[in-house]
Amino acid sequence: SLLRLLHLLSLTSKASTYDLYRTLERLTDNVGSQEHRSRYRPLLRIGLQWKHLKLLKRGGRGHDEAGISATKDGDLAIKCPSCPHPGINLPDNWENVPEEQRFLYALVVCMDANFRLKNQLVSNYSADPGLGIGWAYMVAREPYEAYVLSKADKEAISTCVGFLALAHALTRFVRGLRYTGVGGAFCGRGEMILPNGVGNLQKGKRYANMDYIFASAVQASKLIEARPLIPKFHEPAHEEKNHEQFSFNFAIGVGKTDGEVPERVWAGHNGLGGSTKMQGPGSRHDVLDDHFGFWNWQKYCGMGTTLMRRYKAAVIERNRQVEAHRGFTESLPSAMLTTWDAICVEWDADRFPKTAANPFAVCGAHISQAAVKEQLALEEKERAQKIPALHATGPSVWLAMGLELEDTQRRIRMKAKAQRESPTAHRTQTLTEQRAALSKNVKNWESLRSIYIPGLLQYHTEMGLQSSTGAEDEGESKVEDVNLFLPSRLPAERREAACVEGLLDMEAKLHRAQCLDSLAVLCRTLRLKTRMVQFKNRNVRGQRQGTRSRALIDRVHQRALGSVEQYRAAREALLAISGPGEWENALKPLLNADIRSYVDPEGRRKDGPGRREIWEDGHAPSNLDEANVDLEDIGTFPEERGRREGTGRTKQTMSWIWRVGTVGVGEDGEGDDDILRSEWARSRARVHRCKEEILLL
Predict the structure, then answer these.
(1) Residue 612's closest CA among 596, 597, 594, 634?
(2) How far apart are CA 268 and CA 291, in angstroms?
(3) Could you tell me the strand order of the sheet in which 109-114 lies?
(4) Could you read off the pLDDT of 124-174 as tens digits, one per residue?
(5) Which of 43, 1, 8, 3 is nearest to 22 (CA)?
(6) How far is CA 101 from each of CA 86, 94, 95, 188, 251, rounded to the nearest angstrom?
(7) How far, rounded to the nearest angstrom, does the alpha carbon of residue 214 sit from its chain's CA centroid?
(8) Non-local CB neighbours of 245 within 8 Å, separated by 6+ positions
(9) Is 109 helix (H, G, I), strand (E, B) or coil?
(10) Phi, psi of 56 (to 5 degrees)
(11) How far apart (Å, rounded) are the C-alpha atoms in residues 413 and 407?
């Protein structure tokens, strides 16, 4: 009874035998006034032997006439009932089923490494050989290490983007370690550890180690074709170009599998790192096999409840996606749908690596400000051949100069705000110099304004405004706050009459490109900030280093806020000129809730205002314009979520800013077909994945 109690306590709490023994000592004498003979080493040995005997008993080795010595590799592992096992859970002639049903009998294997289950150079295999290495979940040691040693001269190392796991495995942190961690192979559907699917890592996550572990785990399966995919959580950190073929969302036959099983398995075993790190090599193997078996046993017993819960959720999701896709399809021309469906079918039928046309990619890239300026310059050149130019500085160049001046105004306003919050002599001097330079540039720009907006003087006279705003006189507003009176700033009824012909169209094109450029800069900045925050959370310790790291992240954060202000100002001007239209489908209002990284979940819903994050949809006060909420409400770091609130990633939706970078939003609608095709293909894929999930369950 005592051994069973200590065994279950160890499995559920991940406590070491030493901690359990100390608990028994305290139960005997909590005061510590009496000196007792230590029974720790006998308990340690007896515990290991008892667990091993129970493992053999539950593996049915007592019914084999050949005895324990005839146990084969992987015989003592609890096998996943949802994995395909010919002759056990597969129908007759399963190999001859139609192509569209073959996915029902496919094996989904997920692989990853864990660098927390280290092992120091304590003892050796001669003194601690282990009781059954290779009989359950760990691979057999001798052939595995011989294979890895034969590939030791090769520097082929796998890289996992963004998490710095490999970087840690190859630094001074590995000094004095026998193993830097373990690599594992798991069932992607049942979330169980495969027999002989875990192996030690000698130096990082090298291809040789992971190749052997994969081959060992699937050696009993009939491997016909291997198709690599990237887990859903890791996918946004990889390159986007032509990566749809590696996505679980677009892969045939995987259902709603996310590929993140290793993260869940390792999360349940990271607690073992403290106890197995100082164990001998053989004892560590036995302990890991024991805990892996407990994990599989829990999954095995709860398989019925899990499948029923997933099935009910899958039916609801299937119905929702089917209705959404039907409504989307009915709104599109049938000829266009026929073409798109043929592209999707060809893509699905193509083998890896895919060479067929990608229905999910948007071919047209957005046009940048530089490209728009070049295009307008060519148009001016052609117009000058027919009509004499009003000035050597063309209207498009003049407008571009005005937009750059507005950007400078926004930057100076941000610096002025920082100077007011924490004034320094250096900041004051720098701000004064920048204001003087801006004032001079504004004066030069305003000297040309009457040429391209001849009606502005009359408007100023009627409204009682000054015709020049470049000077910064005492008592007047700062130069960064003055109105430059671009065409979009004039009242709608006065624009056409006040401006020269074609000026409004030029400004609209420049603002449209400015919106797309600012979104591209915002996404790049958020991606950089995400990696910096992840590095800080994992590596930076101490107040001094933490303060420096946060100051650097704050600078990047301010750059992102500058892009947000630029987009909102450009979109407001574009809306004033063009009015509501189809372009708003791509260039949406940029809410604070949209300004988040590709890995950040949507914020929690709050009843009151929060300084750390942002207003939530439907929870902001009715008199508040969410697009213009103070940028201070956007937190520098991701929102902290409690255990009850979860991570928010189970049903995570990516902000629209990460999908608009390649969307064509030209006036003539170019690129709309690509956008619609991509969204329709994604909707079609969601329906297929939901239907596959029901069949798999």
Answers:
(1) 634
(2) 10
(3) 109-114, 181-187, 193-201
(4) 889 988 888 899 999 999 999 899 888 876 555 554 443 344 444 455 566
(5) 43
(6) 16, 9, 10, 18, 14
(7) 25
(8) 251, 352, 353, 354, 358
(9) strand
(10) -65, -40
(11) 10
Peptide bond before 638: cis, by omega within 30 degrees of 0? no
Residues 209/201, Cβ–Cβ less than 8 Å: yes
- Would you state the pLDDT for residue 652? 44
Q: What residue has token string 């207003």?
A: 615
The span from the CA of 401 to the CA of 417, in Å, is 25
The pTM of the whole model exceeds 0.90: no
Q: Quick check: 152 and 206 in contact, CB under 8 A?
A: no
Q: Per residue, what are the HEC states of 352-421?
A: CCCCCCCCCCCCCCCCCHHHHHHHHHHHHHHHHCCCCCCCCCCHHHHHHHHHHHHHHHHHHHHHHHHHHH
Is residue 110 within 8 Å of 231, Cβ to Cβ? Answer: yes
Tokens of 424: 């320094």
> Residue 406 has which token pair?
């507005």
DSSP 3-state assignment of 338? helix
525 against 98, higher pLDDT: 98
Taking residues 500-520, what's their average pLDDT? 86
Round to the nearest angstrom and report the end-to-end CA distance of the chain: 39
Query: Are the beta carbons of 685 and 250 closer than 8 angstroms?
Result: yes
Contact yes or no for 694/318 (Cβ under 8 A): yes
At residue 565, the 3 state secondary structure works out as helix
Q: Which is higher by pLDDT, 642 or 44?
A: 44
Residue 18 tokens, joined: 């030493």
Q: What angle do CA 39, 44, 46 make, to 5 degrees?
A: 95
What's the pLDDT tens digit per position in 306-362?
999 999 999 998 998 888 888 778 877 888 899 999 999 999 888 888 888 888 887
Give the span between the Cα atoms of 619 and 633, in whole angstroms.
15
CA–CA dist 555, 458 (Å, integer): 44
What's the mean pLDDT in 392-416?
Answer: 85
Residue with tokens 């303060």: 547
Q: Are 562 and 411 in contact (CB under 8 A)?
A: yes
What is residue 308's predicted lDDT score, i.e. its pLDDT?
95
Amino acid identity, position 287: V
Flag whether pLDDT at 237 surpasses 70. no
H helix or E strand, kind and range, residue 323: helix 303-330
Alpha carbons 400 and 653: distance in angstroms, whole number: 36
* 97 contact partners, CB below 8 Å, separation of at least 6: 104, 105
Q: Which of 180-184, 250-254, 371-375, 406-410 has the lowest mean pLDDT?
A: 371-375
Q: Give the pLDDT confidence score for residue 387 in this predicted structure.
A: 46
Supply the pLDDT for residue 368: 53
Band of pLDDT at residue 620, cut at 50, 70 and 90: very low
Map out the domains of the chain as residue ranges.
2-70, 94-301, 306-363+691-696, 394-470+477-491, 502-668
Distance CA 40, CA 305 (A): 40
Q: Record the tokens describing residue 131, joined without a space.
A: 């009781």
- Count other C-beta atoms under 10 Å from residue 601's C-beta: 19
Taking only the tens place, the pLDDT of each residue in 560-576 is: 888 898 899 989 888 88
**Gap between the Cα atoms of 366 and 503, Å rounded:** 22
Residue closest to 694 by CA, chosen among 348, 252, 308: 308
Residues 570 and 369: their CA atoms lie apart, in Å, by: 12
DSSP state of 530: H
**In the block, which residue shows the tokens 């001007």?**
573
Taking 90 as the threshold, does the pLDDT of residue 288 lie above it? yes
**364 closest CA partner among 21, 623, 664:** 664
Higher pLDDT, 314 or 620: 314
